[in-house]
Amino acid sequence: GAGVSQSPRYKVAKRGQDVALRCDPISGHVSLFWYQQALGQGPEFLTYFQNEAQLDKSGLPSDRFFAERPEGSVSTLKIQRTQQEDSAVYLCASSLDRLEKLFFGSGTQLSVL
Amino acid sequence: ELKVEQNPLFLSMQEGKNYTIYCNYSTTSDRLYWYRQDPGKSLESLFVLLSNGAVKQEGRLMASLDTKARLSTLHITAAVHDLSATYFCAVDTFAGVDNDMRFGAGTRLTVKP
Predict the structure, then answer these.
(1) Any chain A CB within 8 A of the CB of B87?
(2) Which neighbouring-strand residues pair with B66?
(3) Distance of alpha carbon B64 from alpha carbon B55, whole angstroms
(4) What are the C-alpha distances in Å from A67 to residues A33, A60, B3, B113?
(5) Pairing mode, if any, of strands B4-7 and A31-37?
(6) Closest residue to B50, CB basis, from A44, A45, A99
(7) By the 8 A CB rule, do B21 and B76 touch?
(8) How far is A49 from chain B (nearest CA, A)?
(9) Which residue in A85, B19, B76, B108 is a FRET match for B11, CA 20 to 30 A apart?
(10) How far apart are alpha carbons B36 and B9 in whole angstroms?
(11) CB within 8 A of B104, min separation 6: which ones?
(12) Nearest to residue B54, comparing CAs of B67, B69, B70, B36?
């Protein structure tokens, strides 16, 4: 596709449920980031991949959060045992390399009830 | 820990006026980015500034970077309503231990007729 694609666009989960959020970056983009954006706030860094290598996961808020990019393209962010405080928009972004601008997906809006 | 501070956080201005948004950051970095976000939408890249003294302009927006002062500015000239959005700066710390790109809290700009 022409841009970064994220699915689902909206996700409603019951507290305690596991969720998986998908990101299809632009083909050929080496760098991939996941961000969490709360309402009215700036994006908060979660994790960064260079190809399939997860170079930084320091932003993941707890061990309930897990991200992978096994073949260096599609990435999945998994949240186990969701809590209400996990409610936010999860943004994925990719770039050709680290020095290039990021292209953001439309995000997945997660609501935990 | 890298901190990125923007000010003002809210800005209401009249069409035709000029104004500047400021972005300060706390650690050495040669790469700074400006993004725009419309309500309910994802982020759109505006500028990538890669060196001290870099200045980039597009339309009514001009961004500059002073790495010694750890300061970037986004100057708006003769504002028009279409510029109403939230503007974020982001600083890249791709060096050493940290590999993330951190965003400021955003400046919500409203341009009134």
Answers:
(1) no
(2) B71
(3) 4
(4) 10, 9, 24, 45
(5) unpaired
(6) A99
(7) yes
(8) 9
(9) A85
(10) 14
(11) A42, B4, B5, B6, B23, B88, B89, B90
(12) B67
Which H helix or E strand runs over B20?
A: strand B19-25
8 Å CB contact between B31 and B45: no
Terminal-to-terminal C-alpha distance of chain A: 33
List, for residues A10-68, the tens digit of each pLDDT value.
999 999 999 999 999 999 999 999 999 998 889 999 999 999 999 989 899 999 999 99
Q: Are A35 and A90 in contact (CB under 8 A)?
A: yes
For chain A, state the CA radius of gyration.
Answer: 13
Residue A76's Cβ-count burial label (10 Å; 0-12, 13-18, 19+) is middle
Whether the pLDDT of residue B69 is over 80: the answer is: yes
A99 pLDDT more than 90: no
Kindly calculate the radius of gyration of chain B based on its CA atoms and give it in whole angstroms: 14
Please name which of A5, A17, A12 lies closest in space to residue A87, comparing C-alpha atoms.
A12
Q: Which residues of A touch B94 (CB under 8 A)?
A: 98
